[in-house]
Amino acid sequence: MKNVKLLKMKPYDSFVFPELPSDIREKLFQKDNAMVVVGVLGKSNEAHCNKLLEFNMLHSHPSLTDEAGIDCRVKFYFRTEGQTLFLHFDAPFDNFVLLHLAERMMLEKTDESPLHFIEFNSAIRTRFARVLLLALQVCHILVVVEPSISFDMSYLSIFKSLKIIREKYVLKFLPKMLKNANVGSFMGKECRLCSPRLLFMFNLPDNGEPHSLDEIDMLETKVEDYINKTLRNEFIITNNSAMSLFSLPKMKQFVFFNEAKPCSQDPLMDSIDMLSMYLAKQQQNSAGTLPECEEQQILEQAKPYDCFGFPSNFKFELKDPIEEDERSIFSLVHDHVEDALDTGFDESENPGRQRIRTHFVLPSTHAWYEMFKYMHQLFIENPNDPYYDAYDSDYKAYLQNFHDIVNIDERFFGEICEQGLDLATLKYKDMLPPHYSASFHETKYHEALNLLLEYARGPELNPSIQKLKEYCDTIWQSGKQQCEYPSLRGNPCVLGKHKSIDLAEHSSGVIYVSSCNCGRTQGHREDPYTIRQANYEFYQMIAKSCSNCNRLERVQFPVFEPSSSDFRAAEFINKNFSNLMSFDSTGRTASDFGPNVRAIPGHSPFLSGSQRSQNSSASLSFNIASDGEEDEEEGNIGKKGEGRSNRREQDPAEERIDTDQCDQIDDARLNDDDDEDDDQLASNNEEINEIVIKLGALKHGSDTSPGGIGHPAAPTRLPSTTEYLPGMLHIASPAGLLPRFPSWSLVCLGSSSIYTHNTGLPEHVQSGFLSGSNFLLPWDVSVRLEHAQCWAASYEKIRNRKKGNPHSSKSFEHNKTFTLKIFIGVEYECLRGHRFIMNAPDSILRCGSEIVRNSGSKVVFNDMPIYFPCPCRNTINNTAQLMRVHIITPKAPVNVIIDPKVKLFQNNMQNSITFTTGMTEPIKLTQSSYWILRLPFVYEGDSGPLMAPTDVNPASAIMHGVLLAGMYGIRENELNEETIGISNPSV
Fold this sequence. Notes:
alpha+beta; ten-stranded mixed beta sheet; seven-stranded mixed beta sheet; 24 helices; 31 strands; 16% strand
């Protein structure tokens, strides 16, 4: 290689602390002369982290010789004949060291919460501050390398923290420990070589535009002024350099901007690219070879470092940038080294007459190295050892408080979290009631949490949230927990948490307004917790304050009557549940119709075929039963009834339809022959559009007509006297079990004259009705009586005798057909006591003018919803419940009978249960009377109470529960002289 220039400066020897090879040790301590120690610390972007690359003092590229950067690694560079010792520090601000630490800290994170950035940043700052403090203690000059163009302001907080740590802790423990270790006696009372000079190196951006030297010099001067002013404003440096963490030269340059250079990430890859370019040019040349000068130039550029390819015994020297008069950071450092060797550093500015003598020392290499090893142990090794236990109290305090002082971010976020936690706890305790529910507790906690989140940030956020949660839970669980046992209406108990044997001990504090059994008196009722409270005890209590309830005639419903004091609630498995779910095409179950349904050929206790035509438009039927004896032949009913009966005998399918007691009648389900016959029968309106009741012979006392044929009484199971039904009676309840109290009530308010259809229900009789909704609905029923011969004679004789006209001109035939006028009112009541009548399953009666003739048929022949929205202004839980049925019976030789059944649906109508009164036979109401049936306030099945819905839509109200159609019926009256003596059978 004939064109290689021999260089004058020998390369630097290097080693990584603490591994000091013997040959290098001899060179380092050969003359034991004094050296100026220059530290290099800062940031880098390369994996090797070697910031001395910009000093142009390395004979090979670090990426080819150095290992990847390691935290707190110190590498020494020196020359035997030189007087400068370079210390290169790998620190956490080097990017690849930072990446390695991040990976290691994430692996060491044992808990489930991820590593917070503030925690990671604090750990990095702490590690960097330890290295920086060591460098300031052992170096004369410290070069801070910044790869960007601007000064990193985050250094200010680190400088301020280290100044506090040095004055508060280091100057206390370090003199003692250096003396005990018998090293560093030359350090003086300040325990450092001098007040080190700080130099800054920045890199100009590589934007493609060259910068003139004048521009760079102007930029350096401005940055120097900015840094000097900033550090003095923060009191990091002062006029007394001995009291400063470091010093800045007064009259010398301390900021250097390095000109932009192409970044060489991997010189070996660059050499391969250059070689490939060389071979490509060889192929393009027609001669196959390149000119010698061009070939030599390419090969020189392809070398990864100087003298690449020379034999190992080749002697060379690096060129000295000082002699070359180059503009470099190395030249700037050399100027400051010369000052240190000549006069030392004295940066103090004392305008007074007394001049403060500053400490500056140039120790021998061996003495300095021994001191460095001990300082490295104190500032780097011991703090990194988690198991180290310091024996000196001052040193121990230094180790314990270093992190807290340096990491002002953690301290700041910790303080704001603490402040937010204090405010949040006050927010939670503000206006707490004596006892409160879990939902109220959660609401208060979330209000406090939102306030905490307005303040708290950083790694202490989650611990602060946990502390707040524990604090709030402790307050709530320390005697402020609410019982919260739900009432039958779903309201929680507001008493303190308690153990109650009786559910009646609970109280939700909610008060409702309800009316008594007769509807005359309204009163306040507590939210019930038991069925007994809901359906029995309240009405017993309010009856004491009602002037009417205890005087009225009432129907006694079957209840459990114990034979001894040793009785208990029955335990059973509901075997009849399948009956509840066996829906037919009409949506009814087979058991909805109760035990009174009998399918005896030729005998229908309900409407006959002609009777069903009485309201063919509604396609519904209502119950007609007979207390008297039934004949075996249908021919006595009449000519048209006989023809209808003959058709039943010919068609069994029609017979099943006619004998079904509660199914809805759909004319479309009959065959075409029946349709033709029905049309023919409908032509005789006066004869067909009526109820036909065949009455038996006149009864005197308990005797029956000799000609009557009775059916044998079916054996009935006597009710149990040792076990009672724990819930309410329903169609699947086991036979022989009765409840301990009635949930229904049926009272007779008095004579039918109480109600006047022109004015409606008066307020003093029925209070709480909404305006215009206090009218009952008329239901006109045509009834034709077909009397037995003996009954007819007796009836005519007794009737004429009572009228005082034994020779009346009116014939008997004119009096065997009459119209019954029955008044029906289906009443709903909301929890605020508002009452109203409905005139259809989906319509509320608003005023009396809406009532037309036979309006009651809409509520008689249709299922009426149990729950319906109340028109009152209450926006919260305005659901009204069907609570009463008003019935005014007519003056006629017949009785109105009722058999109420309430069917409630669950799980979107997938399950249902039908409640009954428990009466074995339909209830017969007296004539010309005002009866009120009060329904249960709460329903309870075998598995527990059925919650009332809180939001009901009028269009889908029947999906929650209904009062089944077929509740009302007409039954013949037992004939005697008292019952026959009615002056006018029609209303």
